[in-house]
Amino acid sequence: MKLKDDRKYALIFRAALKLVAKKGLSGITMGDISKEAGIATGTLYVYFSGKDELINALFAACRERSVAVSFKGYNPQQPFKPAFKNVWLNILKYRLQHFEEVIFLEQCYHSPYITAETREKAQQLAAPFYALIARGQAEQLLKNIDSAMLITFIIGAMNELVKQIHYSGIALTRSKINTSFELCWDALKA
Amino acid sequence: MKLKDDRKYALIFRAALKLVAKKGLSGITMGDISKEAGIATGTLYVYFSGKDELINALFAACRERSVAVSFKGYNPQQPFKPAFKNVWLNILKYRLQHFEEVIFLEQCYHSPYITAETREKAQQLAAPFYALIARGQAEQLLKNIDSAMLITFIIGAMNELVKQIHYSGIALTRSKINTSFELCWDALKA
Amino acid sequence: MKLKDDRKYALIFRAALKLVAKKGLSGITMGDISKEAGIATGTLYVYFSGKDELINALFAACRERSVAVSFKGYNPQQPFKPAFKNVWLNILKYRLQHFEEVIFLEQCYHSPYITAETREKAQQLAAPFYALIARGQAEQLLKNIDSAMLITFIIGAMNELVKQIHYSGIALTRSKINTSFELCWDALKA
Amino acid sequence: MKLKDDRKYALIFRAALKLVAKKGLSGITMGDISKEAGIATGTLYVYFSGKDELINALFAACRERSVAVSFKGYNPQQPFKPAFKNVWLNILKYRLQHFEEVIFLEQCYHSPYITAETREKAQQLAAPFYALIARGQAEQLLKNIDSAMLITFIIGAMNELVKQIHYSGIALTRSKINTSFELCWDALKA
DNA sequence: GATGAATGAGATTTCATTCAT
DNA sequence: TATGAATGAAATCTCATTCAT
C-alpha cells in the first residue's frame, strides 16, 4: 500500500514559491506547479482540494515558518537591545534567504485566494512580537507609543530593505547591516 | 466618425483599480473591467491594445500621479525639516486617499504584466526624492549614509503605516501623524 | 453589433437531444454538443451558464413542447371518446416523431442535473390532463377512481408502446394504433 | 493468498444501486462506488475489469433476479386469472421493494454502458411471460392480439404505477392494488 | 468608435485505471 | 487480495481577443 508522501507537500510548496517569485501569483497555473514539482497534475488534487486550498496552505506555512524562525536563540535573560537585534537579524536573514516567500506573502495579501480565516490566523501569529515590544517599553528603552505603530515601522522598513538588497544585487556587508539596524533602533528608542 | 473619448481612459483606470483592490491582480479579467467601467469589452481594445498594455499604462499613470503630488507646495527656501515633513505628509495623504493605487502598484511589481521598460521608467521618477535626501545630508541634518537606504526606510515604513491605518479602520489623528513622522525623523536624523 | 442568436438555442438543443439519444445522458460532453451544433465550445457558455443549466433548460423545453402539442385540435364540444382519442393520438404521434425527447426526459428524471425546481414545474404541466380525465369521469365514461392512477396507466402504457414500436422497427399501421387505443380505453372505461 | 470474497460482489452491487438511485447513472464514479461499498478503489478492479463490466454485470443480475421472482408460487394447474394475478403481484411487490433496481435498469437501457450482448440476453428472459400470455389467449381469456403489445401494456403501466407509488409516498392499500389490477385486466381481457 | 457575441487556447478539475506496497 | 496514492487523458469552464454589425 502506498501512503501519502509527506515530502510531496514540501515539493509542491517549493515549486509554487519558485514560480510565484518568477511569474507572479497571477501567472501560475496548476499545470506549471505540477510540472515544476515533477508530479502529475492530478496528483496535486490528492494533496490539495484545489488551487485555493493549495495557496492558502502555502500562505499559512510561510507565515508560520517565518515567525518560528524569528525567535531562534532569543534569551529573555539577555539585555534588551542585543536580544532585540538578534530577533531583527533573524527576520532579516530569513527574508533574504527566503525572498520567494516574501514575494508570495505580499502577492497573496490582496488576492482573492486567501480566505478571511487564513488572514485571521496569520494575524494571531504576531503576538510574540507585541510581547517583545512591550518588554522594551517596560524597560523604558523603546518609545512609549502604540506598539502596533512600532511594529509597523520595523516590518515596513525591513520589507523594503530586503527588496532593495535583493534587487540591487549589492552584497550586504556587516557594516551595512549594522547601519540599517541603527537606523531602525534610532527610530524606536525612547 | 467619433474620436476617442478621453473620459473613457479615466473610467477604465478607475474600474481596474477598484477591482484590483477588491480581488487582486490575479483576479481581474477584461470582462470584469469593462463591466465595472460600464462599457463593452470590445471597447477596451479601442483604448488599449490588450491587457498587458492596459496594466502597464495604469501602472505608469499611478506612479506619475503619485510622484507629481509629492512635491506640491514644496518650497526650497523653506528650512529642511518642515519642507521634508510637507513632502512626507503629501505622500501619506495621497496614499491614504488613493489606497487602491498603493495596492495596485504593489501587486504589479512582481507580476509578469509589467515590462522591464515600464519598471525602468518608474525607477527614474524617484530622482526628486534622491535630490531631497541629498539636500538634507548636505545640510548635515540627515545621516550621511547611502541615500537609497534612507529612502527605502522612509518608503517602507510609510507603506506599512498606510496599510495599517487602512485596515485597522482607526481614525488618524493629528497627534498620531506627528508621532509617526517623529519616528521616521529620529531614524533619519544625523 | 451582433445580437444573441435565438436560433442557436434550437441548434444547441437539437444537438444535445441527438447525442443523448445516441450515447445516453452519461455519455455527452459539452465538447460533443458544441461540435454537433457547429459552434465553438465557449459559445455554449454564452447561452448557458454551464452543463446543468443547459440540461435543465432542455428538459423544461421538452416538457413544455410535449404538453403544448397534446391538446392540438382538442374541442370541448366534441363527444368525450373521440376528443380523448385525439389527445391520445397527439401524444403518441409526438412521442414517436420526437423519440429523442422521450429518451432524454426519461434519462433526466433520475439524474443529478435536474433541480427540484425544474422537476416541480414539470409536474405542474400535467394539470390539463387531470382536467380531461375529470371530464370523462363527470360524464360517467371513465372509471371513477383516483385520476392519478388513470393517468399513470395511460402514460405508462404509452411510453412502453412508443419504445416497443421504435425498437422493433415494425411499421405502425392504422389498425395497430386502433387496437392499442382500444386496449387503453377498455382499461379506463367505466 | 486470499480468495475473492463473494460478499464483496453484493457489497459493490448494493453500493452502485444506491448511488444510481440517488444521483443517476451519469452521476456515479468508481470512487463513489468504492467509498459507498467501504472498500478501496483498486479493489473494484479485482472484481470487475472496469466500469463497463461492473454495470453490465449489475444489469444482468438485476434482470435475472427480477424475472426469477416473478413466477414464485406460479402453479399451472391454477385457473388463469388468479395465476396471472399472482405473477402480476410478484412483479409489483418486487419492483416496489427494489425500486433502486427499477431506476437502474431504466437508466441503463439507453446508456452506452450496456453492450448489445447484454441487451440481447435480457430480452431472452422475457420468454416465460410470452408463454403466460399465450396460455391466456389459448384459454380465450385474453385479447387475441400481438402478445408483445399486451406485455408492453402490462409492463408499461406497472412501471409507471411503481414510480407513482414510490414518489407520491402514499401507502398502497389492498384495495388500491386490486383496483390497479382490474384496470390492467380490463385492458387485456377478451 | 461602440458593441457584445463568438472564438479557441488554455486553465482548472475530475475520474477511470494503474501500480507500488 | 487489498490498498489508496499516482497518473494523465479528458471533461468543464474561463477569458483575452476578434469580428460582424
UniProtKB/TrEMBL annotation, chains A, B, C, D:
Organism listed in the record: Chitinophaga solisilvae
Classification via Pfam families: TetR_HI_0893_C (PF22604), TetR_N (PF00440)
GO molecular function, one term: transcription cis-regulatory region binding
The organism's taxonomic lineage, starting at the top: Bacteria, Pseudomonadati, Bacteroidota, Chitinophagia, Chitinophagales
Keywords noted in UniProt: DNA-binding
InterPro entries tied to this protein: DNA-bd_HTH_TetR-type_CS, Homeodomain-like_sf, HTH-type_TetR-like_transc_reg, HTH_TetR, Tet_transcr_reg_TetR-rel_C_sf, TetR-like_HI_0893_C
DNA-binding listed as a keyword: yes
The protein's name: Helix-turn-helix transcriptional regulator
